[in-house]
Structure formats: C-alpha cells, structure tokens
Amino acid sequence: MFQPLMHPVRDIAFLFVHMAAPPAGAVAPYAVAAIRITPDGKRTAYHSLIRTKATRARDFMHSHISRKALANAPDHATVQNALCDFLAGLEFVLCYDPYEALPTLQELLRGLRIFDLGFAADYFMPWASTASPRQLWETIHGQPRDKVSFSAEEGAELSLAFTRHLFGNVLADSRFPGARALRHYLAHSDSLFGDACCHLLTRFSDYFDGGLVSPVTAEDTPDWRHFLEKAPAIEARDNQSTGFTEVPERDIRQLYEQLAHRRKGYRIREPQVTYAGHVAHALNTNAVACIEAGTGTGKTLGYLLPVMEFLKRNPQQRVAIATYTKSLQNQLYGNELEACRELFGQYRDIDAALIKGKSNYVCAHKLDDVLSPDMEGEELLAWLFFVNICYRYRLADCEDISPRLRRRLDTNRLLSGLMLEVSAGSGCHASHTDCPAQVVTAEAANARLIITNHNKLILMEKDGKLNGLFRHCVIDEANHFEDAVRSAMSPEIATSDVQGHARYLREQCRKLVASPSTPPLDKDRAGRAVDAIGVLLRALDAMRDRFLAMDRGSLGGATAVTPSHKAFTNGHIANDLKHLHGLMEAVHENTALFNGKEVGRLPLPYKTLSRCRTMRMLVHETMFNLAQLRTGLESEGTWQSVQVFPRNWILGGGHVYVGPLVRNHILARRDTVVFTSATLTHQASFVPFRRSIGLGKGQHILFDDTEAPPKPCFVTRVAPPFEPDFALVVPSGTPTAMFEHKATWLNYVSKVIPELIETNHGATLVLCASYEDLEALRERLEREYDGEYPMLFQKKGEPPAALCDEFRAAKESVLFGVETFWHGVDFPGDTLTQVIITRLPFPSPASPLMDARKRCLPDAAYWDRYRYETAIKFRQGVGRLIRRETDKGIVVVLDNRLLKNRNIAPCPVIEGMQNLPEHLRRGRR
C-alpha cells in the first residue's frame, strides 16, 4: 500500500473473503464476494463459495456456511479465474480483511494490489472498535447488531458502506476541518494509500448513490496547525479553605430515591445507599477510607452521587476520580457523569474534565519539528497518523496504535520511535497553547471534577498547573493501585530509544562537520560529538553482551539483575552504569551547540535544530533515569531487571515496598482519599491491603513530616445485594499444575477442557496464567478437538475488545484469555455460565519483583504477600462468572493445589463434578 499508483483510477471494487483457519498451515478462503463500481455509479457484483474441508465451528459462526455447502462448491482455481476476470483492469481493490491474511488474499487475486480498509479504519479512526465485521457495522450505523455472522456478500457491502462512511463523514472537511491538511499530505505521500484516499474524497459523489454533497468543500492546505484547538485561559485558583459544608449522611438515601424516580430501569439497592454513605462520611471527615463492595453494589454511582452533592454544597472544593482501566474512565465520563447531570439539574454547573497522562498526548510543536520536505511514503504516513491523533485527542491517544498499524508502519521502529519523540510526556511546555496536553491540563485546572487514571493521579503533584488543586480523590479499582505507583515511580531506560536519539544527533553533527558554513569552533565541537556518540553506541552494545553473560535467560524475558557478577566491570554493574552515564554526559555536553542564543549561526534548518534540542533533552532524561537506577543499587528495598533483545536492551528498577511513597507523596497532600474495589480484603481482612500501600494498622495515619497532623482512617466492607449462585469445584483426578509436572498437567487439561465445554454447551471462559500456557492449549485443542462450539483465543498484543464482543454475541462460544480477562470484563447472563481456571495464579517466583521481595522480606511476610496476591487475582477470576443477580454457573479449577490452599478461595471448594448442587448440574450433559 505504500508504493505509488501506476495508473489513473477509473473503476473501484470492494472485496470480502471468508477465511478458514485450519489447525496447521495457511488460512484457506472459502467464500468470496466483490462489488465493482464505475465512475457513473454503475454496480456489478460477483460471489461464490470455494470448496474446502478446513472450516471449524468458529468459521460457521462467522459465515453460517455449512461444510456440506462447501463440499459442493467450485474449486479454488475455478473461483480464482472467475474473480480475476471480474476484477480485470483494476490496479487495486478495497478490501476489509478481519482475518489479516493479506498474503493469502494476494495469492487469490494473483498479485492485484489491496487497499486494506482495516488499516484505514485503524489509521483514521483509532478510537473506534473495527476489528470484527460486527464492530465495524455498529461503528457505521451507531446501533447494536444482533447477528455475528456475515455472508460474503454482506461483507462486500460492509466494505463499501465503511468506505462511504469514512470518506463521506469522518474525513469530510465540513464536519472535520483538519481533513484539508490530511488530504494535502496524503496527496504528497506518493503511495497507493494516499492517492486512493484523495481519489475517493474528490470523486466521492461519482461512485456513491446519494453522494450529492462532496466531502471536499475547501482547498487542501499544508498548514496543519491551523486546525488545532487553543488552551483556555486558566482561571484564578480558588482557595480551598479547611472549612466546608458537610453532605448530610442521613439524606443520602434521598439522592437514590430521586434517581429511581427519574431513571428508567433503576431501582434502589440498599448496599449502594450504604456504600454512598461511607463515601460521604470520608468526604465529611477528611479521612482515608478503604471500602470493599461486592459485585452488584453499583460502586460507580455509589461514589459519584455523594461526590457531586459534595461539590454542589462546596463551590471551593475539587475532586479527582482515578480508575485503572480506560473503559471505566470512558464509562464514568461519557455515561454516568452525563446521566447525573441530565437527571439532577443542580449538578449541571459543576465543570468536569477527562485527563490522561501527558505521554498519552502528542506535542504539536515537536510533531511540527519532525516534518521535513523530503518525507514521503511510510515515513510521511507515520507522521500524518500522529497529526490525526493530535486532532482527535479527545477520542484517541498515543497508545491507540493497533497491532495492524504496528505491523505495517513500524518497520525499524518508525512508528514507535516517532511516538516517543513527539509525545507530550516531556518537553511540552505551557507556552505550547495549541498542544492537546496543554488544552486538557487547562481544562482540568478550571474544572472541579476530573476523571483520570492512577498514574496521572500519582504524578499530578509534578504538574505545576494542577499541583495542590484536587485535595479529595476517589481511587476506584484500587487493588491495582500499588502496581500503578510502582510503575509510575520506577525509572527505566530502553537503549533502542537512546540509539535512535544519538544517531539522529550524529547525523546532524556530521552535516555540520562537512559544511563549509559551519564556524570552526562549532565544527570542532560537532566532530567531538560524533566521536562521543560512536563510543556511546559501542558501549551500549557491549553492555548487552555483559547482561547476556550475567544470565542468558534475559534474552527471553525480564530477569533480575545480579549487581555483583563477574560479567560486569570489576565485578559490579555500578561501574558499568557509571561509565554509561559519563558517556551520555559527554554526548549531552558536546551537543550543547544546538542550544543557546547563537544556535541560529549553524547551517541547519530551524526545524532540524529544534528537533536536535528535543533529542538532546531525551538523552538527558535517559541520564536522569540511569542515575536513579544507580542510586537504587545502593538502596535497600529496591529491585532491578533487564530484558535483552537482538540489538538492544531495557533496564528498569524501583521500590519493592511503595507504602512510604503512597503515604508521604499522595495521602499527606490530600484531604480525602477513598480506596475502593470489589477485591481489597483477604479472608475478610484489610491488613494486607493496608500494608501494601502504607496505611498501617491504626485508626489514624502518621506521616514522616511530624508537623503534618494525623489523618483518620477507616475500613469497611459492603455486602453485595444478592448471594451469588455458583459453585467452585476441582474435578476428581486433577493433577498439580506445578512447573515440574507441566507435561502431565497439559495432557490432562487438553483432555478435560473439551469435555467441560461439551457438557456446558459452550458459554465458557478459560483463564490461563500465562501466554505460554495459552499457546500450548491452543496448539493442542486446534489439533485434537473439533467441536461444535466456537473457540476464541486471545493473541499477544491484540486488544481484547473484539474478542469480548464476539464472545458476548455468540452465546455458545468459548473464550481463552490471559491477564486482561481476569479482571475488568463483564459477561452477564447466559453468555457465560462456566469459568475454567487452568492454573492457580501464583506470582512467578522468578520475576525480578518477587526475587527482590524474597531478599528483602522475612520469610513469613514474603509468603503472606505471595498468598495475598494469589487470592486477589483468583477472586477476580472467579468474579467474572457472577455479574448480575440472575447469573449462575460453576467455576472449575484444573489445579489440585487449590485443595491445599483453600484459604485463597472466596467460597467452599467442592471436590468432584459429581458433588455439584443439583440445580447447577441441571442442563449440563
């Protein structure tokens, strides 16, 4: 798609092909449809089945084409000839390919070029869910679709409809003025992708019925920054006085009575009212509260209504709500908050804002510096992708780069390297008033309620505009908060990034050395910089070899660093890190010619000089992180890890125990902090959670600053509004899942999982402890089991949304997943009636963090923490089953270690499937 068009475009065609995925070998096409349109709008169509024996249950779910029908279909060669005749004369075809099987498609089309509509969706609409045909259809039509299946003909129509939606709506300059700039750079990309996009925009009304209004109403322009928003002025800060009006706790129930009266389908839940009373009490007393509320309580509205009432009564106060997942942030801001404002008129004047960490946004100034006149092809398209992100920052952010985009545009880290360089995480200053990060920061500074994430809340005090503003906060999904603190406070260096920055600086310094216009002193310094960068790059490569000599296992994943080891200079890594720091310091010093008042004398374009300053700043940040890692080596209670790749390495580290950081940098600087989740306790005790975030055991929290007054602290559990109807069972004969018995265990689970699926008629979520387990199961099951229930497997790096959508829609399907499916996903009703936990989620003892805990903690404390983390994750996995009062089913654990660790289970454990309660066995085979 990135090579230029060879001929003018006349007819256009849309293609959709159903692909079967056999247990081994390449995917096989089994149904195809195409639509061809002339410039005067005339349509012709072609469709056919293709004979194959490779289809499985999931294929039938996607297409509703039976094996019998395929057995009588034309063979591959016959269909290929007819299809190619139908598409004769075209240089490319527009194709939506949910299977991501472009090589097979191109073989079917005998090399005809493909405009990948899935790539276009991810490129222009990164906020939308378009990974499956059903999701794409719902994005176009703005409403749910009951059916999962699409015939090939419907798929071709979907390809056409999406093209019409994308170019007639999303990229229409009357709706989206920035499209004028996107068109300009697409036209200059000298690529099939850019040329086809521009052709479809300018000739839109020729091809599409009813396309009377052209999406192009104004001239293209290279001035892309003209369409950026400007940051609003920040209003004078209100003084948040210590006195405030309390929320009458006895009146909390009235809020929910009003909600029941005004919101269709809502009914009062007593646990929710109780929960809201606890939140109000924390706000009234400036307390730290830990509130565990079971599934069905309705936590979101449980804390949102008392927060809004508190803000209504106290115009000088501000509140921050922080969550762990983006989905909950979006639900809070886009659904629940708007519903509260609509239903309760008194809350409409409370300004609210959604804000993420700065690294989620693009710095428009740095992005402009990257642009150069000689950019084309993939490089220009990668840059333009971030322009679109910059425009659409309220819908998408830098993390919304799909695996499909990475596979196509991240050749030699083109996309990821550019993302690091243009991120607003560093170097995006308050003077950049048209940068999205500055816009949302100004909006947050003017707001009285912000919705954010854990990491942004943790680092908020480092933001000059937000520091000290939000003295009250609710931390939802708080069971993840410790990990968020550790991540936010842990330095890391990735040498692939350092190498990219250094090489760019070296390239520009070489130009200065070669240019006769460079002043002699600057030429001399540039030459020294070239030499210093060369030494640094060689040292980084040598350090990679030292890490491999320390532990070859670092090549396969993150490994604990052994600071004292013969692989390092004079037997200790501190010597090598000090040496690297000195080399980076030399690079930073010798590239200082790019800074200062006289930089204009250098014979380089202004944007190049500005970009060099950015690269130099990023090198300095790496030096700072390296210094922190060196300090960590000398501190107690820290960990360091390394992961080695073929040409680079990543070194990280941090604190084993983050309690002091939470206590002194978060709690001490706020009035109210509410920690809440469905899983905070272990065996009904808050002690492990309190210990993990530094709350101590008493009713008051003491701070290192002796002048800071103690803060009241209370904990409470709110029982769910219903008793969950499920059973937790370990089948008879289940082996241990310990690593040394993996072969026996894998043979067992590969045999018993199909039996459990068949007995339960699908509707099963299979939770694996690692991708390694998942891949081993997938390989076995796809080879040995061909049942009638579709099996959906999570893929590493793939977002889970499409799989979740497919699983909910196909109620007899089976979903296999890892980490992200243990928490935060919701499958109510008969979509899910059986959860299979293949292995108890014990933390890996070999992980760098667990290795450090083993060294730093007494044995008893280490094993207490080990069991606590296992219990919390196990409860989260079990909790996927029962989400509503009417839900019921069973949780099957295929690891007999549960029988010896029953205290991690949230309910009694049943041994043997024959001992299940009768009402839960009913309906199973």
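Second entry:
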Amino acid sequence: MFKKLALPAALLAMSAPSFADEGQWQPYQLPQLKAELKKIGITIPAEKLADLSKHPMSAIVSTGGCSASFVSPEGLVVTNHHCAYDAIQRNSSAKKNYINDGFLAKTRAEELPAGASTRIYVTDKVDNVTKEVTQGLAANLSGRERREQIQSRIKKLIADCEQDKAYRCSVPSFHRGLEYYRIRQMMIRDVRLVYAPPDMIGNYGGDIDNFEWPRHTGDYSFLRAYVGKDGRPADPSPDNVPYKSKDFLVVSAEGIKNGDPILLAGYPGRTSRYKLPSEIRFARDVDYPVRAAEMMADIATIEAATKGNADDEVRYASVVKGINNRLKKTQGLIDGFARKDIAAIKDAQDASFRNWLIGSSKSPAEAKALLAKLDAIIAEDMALSQEELAYGVATNSDLFNSARTLYRLAIEKEKPNAQRESGYQERDLAFIKGRLTRLEQSFVAKVDQARLQAALQRYTKLDKHPQGLDALLPSVEAVAAMYPKTSLTDTAKRLAWMDKDRAAFHQSDDAFIQWAVKLHDIGMSLENRRKEVDGQLDFIIPQYMEAVIAWKKSEGKPVYPDANSTLRVTYGTVGSYSPRDGVTKGPFTTVEGIAEKHTGKDPFIAPANLLAAIKEQRYGIFKDPILGTVPVDFLTSADTTGGNSGSAVMNKRGELIGLNFDSTYESITKDWYFDTKITRAIHMDIRYMLWVMKEVDHADNILQEMTIKYPKNAGAKK
C-alpha cells in the first residue's frame, strides 16, 4: 500500500466561494453560504438553518426512502403520493382499491396502518467521527482487513449511540470515505395512513409523464406518527397516541412567482459527481444498458403474469411502480449521456486535476503512483459489479431472497452480536421481519415463478458470471417443481425460520431453503471480494478526494459531498428553462392543463369532480393573481435527486409552499454533472394540494388541523 499522499497545508486550508443553485449542502455548511442565501432573498438566518433543533430543520423528516415534514403538532406528516404508495397498496384489494379511489380518514380511529416496514426518522444529532473511524489504521492492511476494521469501529459507534432504544443511528461516509459522521435519528415505528388522493390525481400522467415537463400531478399524501403514551417510539398499538412534534411547518397559500427564492430540505439518495471518467463510461456503456434491459424484461414478465387478475395486479402495483421509476431514470441517464458528452467534460476536468496534483504534490512520484493505483482499483470495482449484477439476475425471486436472508441470519446469530455482519444484528431483526411480512401484500407464487424463469433465461446472455454459479442454478424447466416444495409462501412459517439454527437449514427439504444453502458459498465469495475492493477504495479514494477538494477550492468551485441519504439543504429560484434551441418551458402549470390532457384513457383520466371544479372555475382563494387560475406544479433550479421525493419546498421565511417530486428529463444526468442551464426540479404547488383538499376531496378535518397562511386579501381562515 502507498503511504498517505502529502499535499501542502496551504492548499488544504483554502476556502471557496459559494456557487448558485448547485450543491446539496450539509446543514452545518450553511453559515458559509449566508451571503449567497441573503443575495437570493432568503430571510432565515443561516445559523438557524444549521441548527437541527430549531425550526424549520426540526420539522424535516425521512421515511427511510423519501423525505417528508411535520405539518401539525399532532405528528401529521406530508410527503409524496408515490412515497406512501406501499401504505396505500398494502391496504388495498380489488374490492377496496384505495389506489384507484383514494383514502381519507375523517377520524383518528379510521387511520390505517402504513405497514411493518414504514418508519419516520427525525434527525436530531450529527457528530463528526472521522478520527474514531479512520485514525490508527495501518497502511499495510489488506483491503478486506481495512474494510472489516472500519466496519467494526462503525458498529461500536452505532451501538454506543443506540443505548437509548428510541434512536436509530448510522455512520455514513462523506466525500467517498474522507469523512464520517454519526447521525442520530428518533425512529418512530407506528405510522398510519391518513389521506391520499386517488391515483388519478396523485399519479396523473403515470409513467408517460414521469420525469417530463409540463407536469400536472398532485403528488401528495399524509401520514401520522404515533408513539406510546410516554411520548417515546413504540411498536404499533391501538393504545398509542399521536407524536407531539415540537416543530412543524406553516403551510403558505400566499403563492410564489417566477424568480422567487426557495429552500429545499430533505434526504437525497445518491449522486456521483466526483467519480472518474472511466466510471462514467462504464455506467453509460455497460452498466446502465444492462440494468435498463433487465428492468424492462422484469416489468413485462410481471404484467403478463398478473394480466386479467385484479387482485394480482394490485399486489404487484407497488413493485411495478418502483421498477418503472428506476427504469425511467436509468433510461434518462442513458439518453442524457448521449445528448451531452459528460465523459468528455470529465476527461478535461480530470486531466486538469491530474496535472495540478502532480505539480502541487510534495512528491510527484507518489502522486503518479496514487493515480495509477486509483485507476487499477476502480477497474476492479467495475468488473466485480458486473458479477454482482449477474448473481442478482439469476436469483430474481422473492422466495429465494427470503431464504437467503434467513440462512445468513442463522449463521450470523452464531456470533456475538457485535461481531455480526451489519444488517443481521439484533437492531436489524425488526427490519428483517418487516420485509418478510411485507410479502403478504406483494407476492403471488405464479408471478414469482414467472420472474425467476425469465431471469434465468436472461442470465445466460450476460457477459460475466460468478465462478461456480452456473452449475448450481436450476434449469428453467425445473423451477416450476420448486414452488410446491416450499413453505416460505406462508407468512407464519416464513417468519418461524428466523428462530432456527444453521442445522435446521441443512436438514430442511424445502426447495428454496436448499437452494439458498447451496448458493451461500458463492454469495460469500462475492461479498468477501467486495470487501477487499471496498477496503482498497477506503484507502485510496479519501486521498484522491482530499486532493480534489483542494483543487476545486483553488478554482473557486463548490465543495459539498455527494448525496448519501443524509439530511441536506439546497436552494434556488423559480424559473423556466430551454431544453433545446427554440424551445422554452415556463415555470408553472395550471389546472386547465389537467383538463387539456384528459383523454378518459389511463393514465390521463382526471376525476369527474375535479374536472367539474375546473370547468366551473371554483378557484376561490387559491387562484393565482398572475396566472388567473390554480397552479399545479412548478420548476426551480434546486439541486435534487432520488430520495428528495417529498422534500419540503419552502419560501424565504421557511413556510411550506410545495413538495418536490421529480426532475425534468433533461436533468437526470445531474447525478453525475450539474448543468445550471437545464437542470430543473419539479415541485407540486401547495395551493393545488389545498384546493383539491377543499374543493374535490373535502378533507376538511386535515385542513383544519394544519396552520395555513392564506393570502392577505383572502379574509378570515376558511
């Protein structure tokens, strides 16, 4: 291994000015941006935005995959419709279809359980633990040894943090391993569905309009957080009471206009803006095309297997929706890479950086060696990821994945809790149980069988196969015989395996248990190779990132970590954009556009009562004075990505004016490269939500519960 690369201290100490719009900032960084925030018109002090215990940041929460915010002191949470889709789907059937019909609880007693895996996370503490994770690690460790030592330290930091069982803690890396922060979140595990509009509003335009502009989607829904009578998180129970949220967002119906500043706070998933040109080309030319083809084929298989059976279609509605969303984004990335040669842009940047690094380093030879090692390990990483993808394709079965998880759990339970692999410790058992239970609402044996058979056929055509896997796979013809020979289709029996030991798995005649046991060694080989590669990356990448940050600062460019599902703040302005020559797309859509798109055929079927309200122009106080009607969605230059769905879009005072739910198709490549000219985020205007609640769905009880700031000329609160 190379010793740590030395850069002059002056380079590491340089500060950088902010850069408008671009940046998914950690809250603690916001005081550095106070001049920029003030310049665009934000009136909330930057120091207040940096304080997680103060409004508005204390009202921003995560659902584990989406963002959300408290909007009443009674634990009422607003997020996207598609973020609550699992909760809607799990309570639906062909006869009682809340997806199609919508759902509204008029009383607390009518609220429905959102599901065993649904959580609300309230971040309350963030500590820099970089020294605790990385200090004293020997330079001569193998990659796997380094990875395991880092993970061991992280597990201890988490265990110390979770002494109070009300909290869930994590230690994600920032800047690809240069820094580590321990995040403490209150984890509320009794979450209930309160209100969701019908799919004809919450998902208007469906997959056709996904990532497109103009949009006319009312992508919102409401959940409620419940806790024990002592105010602490508790398992779901009829005795629980609504969580008393210390802070919540005021909902502003005063409206916004072109050029207005906005703040956006949420939990963006993953970006890749610091990756190398080789990694971009791999994603563009190899990884994304294969993944897109896999998703298209899987969707087609599910649709064919569920066709004509309404109950089966409902069971797989959430699964298909999730795959479709990932597919549209992946295809958008492929198209975006074709439209703009981001790899070539990165080539120029990378060449400039490498020249700067070699010229600035105290030892040019060490710098060159670091870069050579970096390129080599990145190549290993990309090659291994192809084998990992192939393994996932060959085992595309919910029953196999359940069996694999259960067998691994039995093995890990033989170890002391602190030595178990992350994901299989005592703290993870409730999540494993939740995933296994979730199959009750999203599994049909004949559909699972069809998916596995089709996947095995596709697997044979992939370029890279894990060594030894082919011989252990069933033939396509043999798959059908496995399903009558398993009890994992029964929830109680599936959950019972959580308490069984390794010997029980080896003695079992269950077809999927047997298959999981047979494939275990190959899965572990892939996992151990991944640890070796990741451990080498843990050593090389932080040195690379330290140099990249110094270089960016020297050029006055923004320095923020890639998104990693932790709380971030971005800002921007309402505005139009020009995706191509001669075309300009304005920043607002209106309810008239809903009527114009309405065809009576899915996905452009608007509810009759909504169309009537538009025809009669029953706009009331939600009528925009400039547009002359009710706005539906709007665009801003905010820096967002997946995970930002449901993020609070706030005005200059920190009041809720919209919900983030998408990006324009031209913006999808912003995960790799932020282009200020065309990057736009799509938000639902809160006035449309309030108008639908009042004029269409008559959700008066929820309107009354929220604190709503109406336009000054609107008179008394209604």
